[in-house]
Design a protein that fits this description.
1204 residues; mainly beta; Methylamine Dehydrogenase, Chain H; seven-stranded antiparallel sheet; lipid binding; TECPR1-like_DysF; autophagy; repeat
Length: 1204
């Protein structure tokens, strides 16, 4: 039997193939893209890349793929010219097809795609019916159409000849993209694909059936796939009774699909004349409680996987009964199943993501006997293995016991006593007959030797490879529908961690794994290398995502082109990687978190020594006891009382330093009222925030204190120049930080926020901020500005901070501070980089219809401006519209000399010219014109660019629309920080390699979705929730530190008649915000049912929500009442959040007026315990938190200082 290929895709999107005659995975070197899944047959392999485009890989052969193009040249005889191209009006075209009905000139033939090439030019076919014709290749007939002959007769009035040209398919053994013009008419990209149908009864040889599922759940069939046309011709939609998430096509006429609700449907009526079939029949899921997520079909078999990863076999399936008769539960837990030639079965295990082969599948026993892991190396591992072995041997000869003892002593000096006792009491080598026990290694800043030992033990156990899974044969006649084999079959053992591990607990556990059985051989070999047990191998560079000793993690497998049977001899199950067990056992892995623990320990020791040395000098007097300096200037002040206007004032900052080195100061504003000199003052230590305010005519900034934050009425000042304003802001910011003792970069627990203008602010939380029942009021929080310009910021307590700009560029915090207008002491000297951002400025063109001229720019006197902003209240023309501030500059457009700098914004809600129609101004707009539409508008856009500096580094190349980072507990440490994002196209991505030392990570892992998403959040226990662009909610199942990508999405019903727009997940709480500004809390979240049960309404007028690692809830609220006006974009804190009352009780209002985003996901600082006073206490208790009502009022200038 000739060799054939098994295809697979790893979790990084790389495609591998394994030959039946080979012993290693060969990577497809020509695949420059990351693939989601593949579907293989013997002659080719289809795949869906992460860009949602379909690619085809045709295997090279000795016989090239050639296609013959032909056209006919037709002529008629007339007495004057003889045979000429002057035809009668009723005749066929001069150049036509064989029937004469289609016009086909020579220049009308084009190559279908770039994967084809012409072999030669057009030439005349001089053969007719196997016999040569006269020179010129003409054949004659009496008329069109008639019987043609090669001989000319006296009554031959017409003639024709055939022109031929061949094109050759040149893209073989490489991935070729299906032409976009053939898929451009599709409404959405593809999410699943399956190829088969080459054994349909009486089907012409070389004919294939390709089925695909789009992101919207629609099914498509690729027509015209043949040996001489491997790409096919056109996509045809196949109607379905519901939304489909996955489909499988067998070699013959079996086609099954999985519906969104978990049911399955079978396609009936498939034949040679109707390869698409005629109707669907719904089949219930194998388990009534959980639906199906995957199905795979062959010739006479159907396998399915349910949401709990259980594997099921459908009995009684054949060509006469494609629906089968009943389900049989099989042993094993898989994420996907694939059926190939001869009904052989492959799968990918749930726990270890390894490829498994089903042994014992025969014609008489279609269910097989046991699962066996495919254990072969990849093509890039053999060289790594030999190099690793030699390096380990040399390391073992060089390092002695002295190094080992020193390393252990330095590490174990600060280990907790409990950990030491546990390490001493635990046996070093587990006997074969001992039962495996669960083990949770403790990895903290001062103890990580336990993980080193556990890694070594885990490697010893894993080198033996996963054992085969025994399972008794299943006769078809045994068992009724719904019966399972679990009663008699032994338990499935897919991986060492599964055999002894416990179910993941609801609490946050950083690392959890189980000790494994060690074979006698492994014990003996480990004893030989006990002298080298302290040798550690550091991986300073890694070219591949996998290390040389790591097994690959597979995401998809396809055996449709793998021709094996029960008698095939395969070398896939006994391969070694080149390192013996003893070498593998002594290879230890030092993680970045362990290296960080060493650094922290050294830093603490140096700090303690510095304190001891300075203790003897504390009684020395300071050289300078106290100093005072004053800076004065002239500004304008926005008067607090009516009539409000700008008043010229004298501004002074008096700053002094005390005997102990502490600094403080006072602000003075001297003004004249009714010819009387007066002044305002504010203590520097009472200032809570300094905010630059954008204004077209003045360079202004606002000063907030706690009292003015309550009133929503700051001190607003205007400088003469922009440089002077920035000088005062930098000076005041440094003074405020000095008075509060805040220096350096933001801490890991910091709270980040962003204004609607893109300015970034950070606040250092106090321990009492989340205290109950008397927390620190959030209007007393001090906010300082950080350089840069962003739209979204997310963080966690490990110091990983990411941001997204208005142009969807991703940025990571570099660890510095300052930047922008902060210079000198207000900014760090390093870790400051140039940052750019691009945004669009929109104006609206409005028109009204009249019976004479139709739609024109002549409106009614009561109409809005014909060129205005979105509200219509402000006139905005192309000439007078300027960038948001002097920092922004217009971006030049390459076609500006033709069409100007402004361009029309066209989307799905407009017509082709960008117009939106309505009955009147203002009203609900729609993208199509009706008889009742008398007004219309369209949006014009122009891009502007901002260049600044800040502690941010760009993370290329994928633009993002949302990002989320795992919120960690107070003392938790993780080796790799889970970070998820959503691209600007709606794709879900998972960032790999994110740690505290490398916060930017290394690469993206694409997560499959059925539709584009817009919001995502990851919470405690790796719970991932997301919001799709249509407003529906989803939960990602089986996400863990070992399985970063999870398995599948579960649809969560939205609140009644509401479309969600944002989600935030904490430790045990899930909050969402809908498009109408309502805040919802998800009830019924339990470890066994993390999707929850229902939504409960909490509040309205909410713009954004952020849930922290301690389930604290913060929001950005709209329409918050102040002393003078309503404030839009106010930071609010939910009070009374307790484990028994996660929804809280009331709101506390903080800084407000123009804020757009906040994240508290880095604040894992637990509040101190407070003793509740008794009812008999007569002391004066603190007043309770404020909760002003939301009401309407007249908007005034200072109520929204940022100018959102």
């Amino acid at each position: 039997m000739p060799s054939s290929l098994l295809w697979a895709v790893d979790v990084y999107g790389r495609v591998y193939s394994l030959s039946t005659a080979g012993q290693q995975w060969e990577q497809c070197r020509h695949a420059h893209l990351e693939f989601k899944r593949v579907s293989a047959v013997q002659q080719c392999c289809w795949g869906i890349a992460c860009d949602h485009h379909i690619y085809l890989n045709v295997h090279a052969s000795d016989v090239p793929i050639r296609y013959q193009e032909e056209t006919y040249e037709n002529q008629r005889w007339n007495p004057v010219d003889g045979f000429s191209d002057r035809l009668l009006p009723s005749d066929r075209w001069q150049w036509s097809d064989v029937t004469g009905l289609q016009h086909q000139p020579l220049d009308s033939f084009q190559l279908p795609s770039e994967t084809w090439e012409w072999e030669a030019d057009w030439y005349v076919d001089e053969n007719f019916g196997g016999e040569p014709t006269e020179k010129g290749g003409w054949t004659y007939a009496i008329d069109f159409p008639a019987t043609y002959t090669k001989d000319k007769k006296w009554n031959s009035c017409v003639r024709r000849r055939r022109w031929i040209r061949y094109r050759r398919y040149k893209s073989q053994d490489t991935w070729a993209k299906i032409p976009s013009e053939q898929t451009g008419s599709l409404p959405d990209p593809f999410n699943d694909i399956s190829c088969g149908g080459w054994e349909i009864t009486e089907e012409p040889r070389g004919r294939l059936s390709l089925w695909a599922v789009s992101l919207q759940g629609r099914v498509w069939f690729r027509d015209g796939i043949h040996y001489v046309n491997p790409e096919g011709s056109v996509w045809e939609e196949v109607s379905t009774p519901g939304e489909v998430v996955q489909i499988s096509c067998g070699p013959a006429d079996l086609v099954w699909a999985v519906l969104w609700e978990g049911q399955l449907q079978v396609r009936e009526g498939i034949s040679r004349d109707c390869p698409k079939g005629s109707s669907w029949v719904v089949v219930e899921s194998p388990s009534p409680e959980v639906g199906a997520i995957h199905v795979a079909v062959g010739v006479n078999v159907v396998w399915a996987v349910t949401k709990d990863h259980k594997v099921w076999f459908r009995r009684g399936v054949n060509s006469h009964n494609p629906c089968g008769s009943g389900w049989i539960a099989m042993v094993g837990e898989m994420v996907m199943i694939n059926v190939g030639l001869n009904d052989q079965v492959w799968g990918i295990s749930c726990e270890e993501r390894a490829v498994y082969f089903r042994q014992g599948v025969t014609v008489s026993e279609l269910s097989g006997k046991a699962w066996k892991a495919v254990s072969v190396p990849r093509d890039n591992e053999r060289s790594h293995s030999s190099a690793s072995a030699s390096s380990l041997q040399s390391a073992g000869c060089f390092f002695g016991g002295e190094v080992r003892l020193q390393s252990q002593a330095s590490v174990m000096s600060d280990v907790d006593s409990e950990t030491e006792k546990a390490a001493e009491g635990a046996p070093s080598i587990l006997e074969p007959e001992d039962a495996p026990k669960p083990r949770i290694p403790k990895v903290t800043s001062d103890s990580f030797i336990s993980e080193l030992v556990s890694d070594r033990e885990g490697q010893i156990g894993r080198r033996e490879g996963p054992p085969a899974i025994a399972e008794p044969p299943i006769p078809e006649e045994d068992g009724a529908e719904g019966e399972t084999e679990g009663k008699t079959a032994p338990a499935l053992v897919l991986s060492p961690s599964q055999s002894g591990g416990l179910d993941p607990q609801w609490s946050n556990v950083d690392l959890e794994e189980a000790q494994t059985h060690l074979t006698v051989g492994a014990v003996a070999e480990s004893a030989e290398t006990c002298s080298l047990s302290s040798v550690a191998t550091f991986n300073l560079g890694m070219e591949e995502q996998y290390g040389p000793d790591e097994r690959p993690l597979w995401a998809w497998v396809s055996g449709g082109g793998c021709a094996i049977d029960s008698h095939s001899q395969l070398n896939w199950f006994n391969s070694t990687t080149g390192l013996n067990t003893s070498m593998q056992a002594m290879s230890l892995s030092i993680t970045p978190s362990q290296t960080a623990a060493w650094r922290k320990q050294i830093f603490e020791q140096l700090s303690e020594r510095s304190k001891r040395e300075m203790e003897n000098f504390r009684h020395y007097e300071q050289a300078i006891e106290q100093s005072v300096w004053v800076k004065k200037g002239t500004m304008q002040w926005w008067r607090d009382w009516k009539p409000h206007k700008w008043v010229d004032v004298q501004f002074a900052l008096e700053q002094f330093s005390g005997a102990e080195g502490n600094k403080d100061g006072i602000l003075f504003i001297y003004y004249t009222f009714n010819e009387e000199k007066k002044y305002l003052h504010a203590f520097i230590n009472e200032v809570t925030i300094l905010v630059p305010v954008l204004n077209e005519s003045k360079h202004t900034f606002a000063i907030y204190t706690a009292e003015r934050t309550k009133q929503r009425w700051p001190i607003r000042l205007a400088a003469a120049t922009e440089l002077e304003m920035f000088d005062w802001l930098a000076l005041l910011s440094v003074s405020c930080c000095d008075s509060r003792g805040i220096h350096g970069p933001p801490s890991k627990q910091a709270i980040w926020s962003v204004t609607c203008k893109g300015d970034i602010f950070v606040s250092e939380p106090t321990p009492n901020l989340e205290a109950s029942p008397y927390p620190t009021p959030c209007d007393q929080m001090f906010w300082r500005q950080v350089g840069g310009h962003l739209r979204v910021v997310e963080c966690n307590s490990l110091g990983v901070v990411w941001g997204i700009g208005y142009d969807h560029t991703a940025w990571v915090h570099s660890g510095g501070y300052g930047g922008g207008f902060f210079q000198g002491l207000a900014s760090s000297t390093d870790h400051i980089y140039t940052q750019t951002d691009v945004k669009s400025v929109y104006i609206y063109e409005n028109q009204r219809w009249n019976p004479v001229t139709g739609y024109t720019n002549r409106g009614l006197p009561t109409d809005r401006y014909m060129w205005s902003d979105a509200s219509g209240l402000k006139e905005c023309t192309k000439a007078n519209t300027k960038p948001p501030s002097p920092h922004w500059t217009w971006v030049p457009v390459y076609y500006q000399h033709l069409f100007g700098s402004w361009f029309i914004f066209v989307s799905g809600g407009t017509d082709r010219e960008g117009w939106q129609y309505a009955a009147d101004f203002p009203a609900s707009y729609h993208g199509h014109k009706t008889l009742k539409d008398f007004v219309r508008r369209r949006r014009w856009a122009r891009k502007c660019k901002l260049t600044t500096t800040g502690p941010w580094q760009e993370v290329p190349p994928i633009p993002l629309s949302d990002v989320t980072i795992l919120p960690c507990g107070p003392k938790s440490t993780v080796e790799q920080v889970p970070l998820w994002g959503i691209s600007n196209k709606g794709d879900v991505l998972c960032r790999l390699g994110v740690t505290s030392l490398t916060p930017a990570g290394t690469s993206w892992l694409h997560i499959g979705t059925d539709q584009p998403f817009k919001s995502i959040s990851i919470g405690g226990a790796c719970q991932v929730w997301a919001i799709a662009r249509d407003g529906s909610a989803f939960y990602r199942g089986s996400v863990s530190s070992q399985n970063l990508a999870g398995d599948c999405w579960y649809h969560i019903p939205s609140p009644n008649r509401q479309k969600l727009k944002q989600v935030s997940v904490g430790r045990t709480s899930v909050y969402t915000v809908d498009e109408n500004g309502n805040l919802w809390y998800r009830q019924g979240l339990t470890p066994s049912y993390p999707q929850g049960s229902s939504w409960e309404h909490i509040s309205n007028n909410v713009r954004k929500v952020s849930v922290g690692p301690l389930d604290q809830v913060w929001i950005i609220a709209d329409k918050v009442q102040g002393s003078h006006s309503l404030s839009c974009g106010t930071v609010c804190h939910r009070l009374g959040v307790q484990p028994m009352e996660p929804k809280g009780q009331s709101w506390d209002y903080g800084i407000g007026g123009g804020w757009d985003h906040i994240t508290v996901r880095g604040n894992a600082m637990e509040a101190p315990r407070i003793r509740m006073p008794s009812l008999t206490d007569n002391g004066n208790n603190a007043t309770g938190p404020r909760s002003p009502l939301l009401s309407r009022g007249t908007s005034e200038l200072n109520g929204n200082a940022v100018g959102c």
